[in-house]
Amino acid sequence: QVQLVESGGGLVQPGGSLRLSCAASGFTLARKAIGWFRQVPGKEREAVSGMSSFDSRPAYADSVKGRFTISRDNAKNTVYLQMNSLKPEDTAVYYCATDPRLSTGAAWYSRSRYTYWGQGTQVTVSA
Q1: CA 110, CA 55: separation in Å to the nearest integer?
Q2: What's the burial of 111, exposed, middle or buried (CB within 10 Å: 0-12/13-18/19+)?
Q3: I need a labelling partner for 63 at 20 to 30 A (CA). Which of 6, 69, 83, 124 fits?
Q4: Burial (Cβ within 10 Å: 0-12, 13-18, ≥19) of residue 113
Q5: pLDDT digits (tens, 9 = 90+) for 14-45
Q6: Cα(103)–Cα(52) distance, rounded to whole angstroms?
Q7: Residues 74-112 pLDDT 10s
């Protein structure tokens, strides 16, 4: 059974930092596509960052470029999202996602690229 568990969310002041973790069980994250998404109530889930299955090249949404960093620790079977210079508009539930297929034709920012999803972790940026 594949399970993704996010952690590291919480309340932080504007300008602060958080590091989200996504630990996998029943599935090896190495050489798999990884995605981080976020969602606020009433809005669609949006892509934040992704990592290719082929070369682990990171990709970022324009709204987080230069502030967020995605990384992968194969030994711990965990992916991370380091979030710096947080803004109130970053407030959302953050989800990690992955997929067993090396390629699907879908872009990293497409929800259809991913089969497995975590339960989400709340990030609140507020003074």
Answers
A1: 18
A2: middle
A3: 6
A4: buried
A5: 999 999 999 999 999 988 999 999 999 999 99
A6: 9
A7: 999 999 999 999 999 999 999 999 998 888 888 899 999
